[in-house]
Amino acid sequence: MSAMPTLFLSHGAPDTAVADTQAAAFLRTLAADLPVPRAILVASAHFERDGRVGVTSDAAPETIHDFGNFDPRLFEMRYPAPGDPELAQRIVFLLAEAGFDAEAVAGRGFDHGTWVPLLLAYPGADIPVVQVSVDPTRDAAYHLDLGAALSDLRGEGVLVIGSGSFTHNLPEAFDRIRQGIRVDVTPDWVARFVDWMGDRLVAGDRAALADYRRQAPFAEKNHPTDEHLMPLHVALGAAGRGAKGEWLHASRDFGVLSMDAFAFR
To answer: How far apart are CA 200 and CA 234, in angstroms?
Structure first.
């Protein structure tokens, strides 16, 4: 079996699931260009744990509506994909073997960082899905190593997805959301960060990406907290040493949320 690529997807606001945006249109076509996975592992920005890595282990995970004040249709949506308890145990083993403190977590459903992009990309919900947590107290290098511990899964037919946001300044986004401005001019501080990150992902420059907080222009303005970028580092790490990024999609939501997506091979 050929090794699967890994992906970073910007999931955006929860209403990406029902919105008429470029990012939503891209996600609807994503699966057509990929091998069919036997399972999907998602590192979601909305599954945060400090210290110990969590791996969801339920056979039939629930759909979590972890947001408020969005389109009422979203609260009726479900993503009934099965879990994969056996795969969850395999992931815990791989992480432990690499020196991570990891455990299987029961009773933790699919957050919107998982079900929103998967609902669009894999609407049949017939592929097993497992989630792995990110740690908001740890840096990019830690998450690259976390991804690297999972790299064997690519050869086992597992599609590793990091689901976050290429930029994520929520106060700036909410200003536009309140005004109903979904399409807006991209500020220079967003464009410069996106260009820097994208160029280094395409080049596979892991050293710079691990140090993005210091090196990238406007890093802290685009990510006041960086949990939404850590799934990208998990996906890059899982692709294996020497992997480079392919820029699959680029668009903006509310002017300041960069909805870019990458594949790593």
So the answer is: 16
DSSP string, 182-214: -S-PPPHHHHHHHHHHHHHHHHT-HHHHHTHHH
Q: Is the pTM of this model over 0.70?
A: yes
What would the pLDDT profile of 53-66 be if each residue is shown by its tens digit? Answer: 999 999 999 999 99
- Residue 178 makes CB contacts below 8 A (sequence gap 6+) with none
**SS3 label, residue 227:** coil
| Residues in a beta bridge with 263 | 7, 246
- Cα 129-3-240 angle, rounded to 5 deg: 95
Tell me the average pLDDT of the chain: 96
Q: How far apart are CA 111 and CA 115, in angstroms?
A: 6
Tens-place pLDDT, residues 199-246: 999 999 999 999 999 999 999 999 999 999 999 999 999 999 999 999
Residue 118 belongs to what H/E stretch? helix 112-121
Q: How far is CA 233 from CA 34, 87, 138, 144, in A?
A: 20, 21, 12, 5
CA–CA dist 236, 150 (Å, integer) = 11
Three-state DSSP at 152 gives helix
DSSP collapsed to 3 states, 232-245: HHHHHHHCCCCCCE
Domains and CATH numbers, the chain: 6-264 (3.40.830.10)
Per-residue confidence (pLDDT) for residue 1, from 0 to 100: 63
